[in-house]
Amino acid sequence: MQTALLIEQILNGLQFGVMLFLMAAGLTLIFGVMGLINLAHGSLYMIGAFACATVAAATGSFWLGLVASLAAAAAAGAIVEVTVIRRLYDRDHLDQVLATFALILIFSEGTRWVFGSFPLYLDIPPLLRGALPLPGGGAYPAYRLAIIGVGIAVAVGLYLLISRTRLGMRIRAGESDREMIAALGVDIRTLYTVVFALGAALAGLAGALVGALQSVQVGMGEPVLILAFVVIVIGGIGSIKGALVGAVLVGVIDTLGRFLLPVAFATFMDASSAAGIGAALASMLIYVFMALVLAIRPQGLFSAQG
Amino acid sequence: MMGNPRETILNLALVLLLAAIPLVATGMGEPFYVTLATRMAILALAAVGLNFLLGLGGLVSFGHAAFFGIGGYVAGIAATHAFNAEPLLFGLPGTNQMIVIWLAAVLLCGLAALAIGVISLRTSGVYFIMITLAFAQMIYYFAISWPAYGGEDGLSIYVRNGFPGVNTLNGLHFFYLCFGLLLAALAVFSVLRNSRFGAALEASRQNQQRLAAVGIAPFRVKLVAFAISGMITGLAGALFADLNRFVSPSMLSWHMSGELIVLIILGGTGRLFGPVAGAMVYVLFEFYLGGVTERWQFFLGLILLGVVLFARGGVVGLIAGKARHG
Amino acid sequence: MAEPILDIRNLNKSFGALKATDNVSLDLRPGEIHALIGPNGAGKSTLIHQIAGSLRPGSGTIRFLGRDIGALGVPERTRLGLGRTFQISSLAPDYSALRNVMLAVQARQGTSFRFVKAVMRDRSLRDPALEALERVGLAERAHVSAAELSHGERRQLEIAIALALGSKAFLLDEPMAGMGPEGSKALTTFLDGLRAEAPILLVEHDMDAVFALADRISVLVYGRVIATGTVEEIRHNPDVRQAYLGEEG
Known about the structure:
The structure holds three protein chains of three kinds.
Chain A: H1 2-34, H2 41-59, H3 62-83, H4 93-115, E1 131-133, E2 139-141, H5 142-164, H6 166-176, H7 178-183, H8 188-211, H9 221-235, H10 240-266, H11 271-296
Antiparallel strand pairs in A: 1-2
Helix pairs in contact in A: 1-5, 1-8, 1-9, 1-10, 2-3, 2-8, 2-9, 3-8, 5-6, 9-10, 9-11, 10-11
Chain B: H1 5-27, H2 31-56, H3 65-84, E1 87-89, E2 92-93, H4 98-120, H5 125-145, E3 155-156, H6 171-194, H7 196-206, H8 208-213, H9 218-244, E4 246-247, H10 254-267, H11 274-292, H12 296-310, H13 314-320
Antiparallel strand pairs in B: 1-2, 3-4
Helix pairs in contact in B: 1-2, 1-6, 2-6, 2-9, 2-10, 2-11, 3-4, 3-5, 3-9, 4-9, 6-7, 7-9, 10-11, 10-13, 11-12
Chain C: E1 6-15, E2 18-28, E3 33-37, H1 44-52, E4 59-64, E5 67-68, H2 74-80, E6 82-85, H3 97-109, H4 123-136, H5 151-164, E7 169-173, H6 181-194, E8 200-203, H7 207-213, E9 216-221, E10 224-229, H8 231-236, H9 238-243
Parallel strand pairs in C: 3-8, 3-9, 6-7, 7-8
Antiparallel strand pairs in C: 1-2, 1-4, 4-5, 9-10
């Protein structure tokens, strides 16, 4: 039974990591191509979750909700890019931080305005309600496995997109030399809008998928956003591969830390203090990990900037 | 070197205005406005600390809530132990003396800033922003999950801590205590900016390569600046906890870090009185917009966006014109 | 022969397959101007970076005043007395010319962790800074911000900073670049006098200046020193004529 519990926790960590990857991939892509730090990425995650919950409630179909989440987040991303973000590419990071911080206030308060302060609920689709048996006994929810599958599919898809397609070629060119791709006649404004919308759609997808596990509410994107920052700092800003490795590491370390640290402390102190101290230290674990990575490699594991 | 005369007049006006609000409010029997002015003074003090790093050193710390919160918890924890007459650490008693609390807050924040700075300052740019944010989050989550001092619910200070010769329970007296510390911090800021250390710090913002090429290692300069900055913000945190007689993880949250940056930008980055102007405007926004609509943060977002996109000099910049350097 | 001030032995640096510095040895002796010339892409910048400390050499030694400085960073090397100017002016743009030089004076005094006294009222900073500005002919522009100085004035300011550092050797990276003919002439005269104060390693494209000033010249091609010698020796060296001046035979 212990093995099954451990496998379950590892899978939970993977699922968490995959979800972080969906967020981090967009963030790191946007930073790599446009040099923009986007705090409002968590708002796009929230928009995806709200769109999914609303459409699923209206139509009764989770799948339509999922499509809606992609569309809504991509559309919101494109609109924000054209109206605000575009003016920030040439600004310093401080201005980018502030403007996107302002966007968070607008999005969060705006969503509360439209949907009220009560959380929405999103059900797991009937197809994925079951559980699959684990080796060593126990079972694991099919829906969480499906999230892991989606994450892997997105990682493969992004890899193919960037290495095999014209759009990917332009993205790579944009990362290395902005003037050159302008000189090649690529419409850089459209490219930026497309990249931003793509990143937004991934965030929206993550929000919708997680919406069925947790409640859908204002502010849900912020803790995830900060973890996604930790992920891309660990992985190296601008690197999709770094985002994937960083996300899985953070997901697994965080989940296992919360599971194992209280158990470990209980071997030499009483159970309730062990639970308290273990939980407190577990909550700091990934930040300690990040500090360690940076102490050794200040540019992260797979820095695109060299 | 004489500063910009219009800026000097504006600075004086801001000081007099802030000093006068609580007097007038007390005269009119509106103690709430005294609290509002105290809030302005304390947030301004916290932002003076950040302005030192961000304005002079060009280092965008998105984690200054860490120091604000640590300062707050020092006040809360010391007061709780004093109230319950339980020893604190190594047999040391708790205390309700502000002077002791301030010293402890400043010392602890200085140490925390050194530890965070040693790692964060190895990086620059976006990395620095995100790492300072992450460290603050680490402390935030620690405060939430550490049950001894209230965890998520926070910690109440039953009786505001004391200061010799001052009745801190009187709102007006407490205001002038905070106001005095704000003025002292502004004086420190001004002296440091004009000193050799300030020159090295400003040079590290303008051109790090140049600083290294004259033989000054930028890292040490920035680390000392980070520590001083954290200490000032930590002191403000201790006052803030005493103002509200309450400290909670929200003082450590990234919204708080964001707010401090917003204060500086609203006021004017790197300007001596930018944080004062910013805090006054911000608290007024919060109060009046909050009175008009529950959705005040929505409008705050719009205003902030407008300031960033179109009015980068902040309030001081709008009124006093461009900054001048000697 | 006097002990060299700066002594570089068997320096190597590669970027991937490219050997940017290929077994370079050269030295700088007291009182001389040693010019380093070579076509674009010959590896002059890479070499300067390694000497100044902003780039770690792959292998080889750099000795300055008899001391191995290979492991030291830029600030430490500057404090030992290696003063450099940048190919593209690198200044504190918001600061006046005076304050840029004052920063160097303060660095030389090793007093950057003083927190109280105002620098602008500090004669021990101002006087040496003004003197350095005077020497390069920038005294009248002392209170103009570096960003508002003309290109040529910024080059002069870079030199004033190196002077104020009390350098024991100067590393001047294309000081004439972008200067008008008049400016170049004035600077040539100035550098001619400067060599008595401290030797100069001069990277320069302006051949008139190089031939007028240099006691010795080293020619760098594809990361290698193909010749070192007096102006006359270099002028008549067939390898140099072929590789650098682009002449056949």
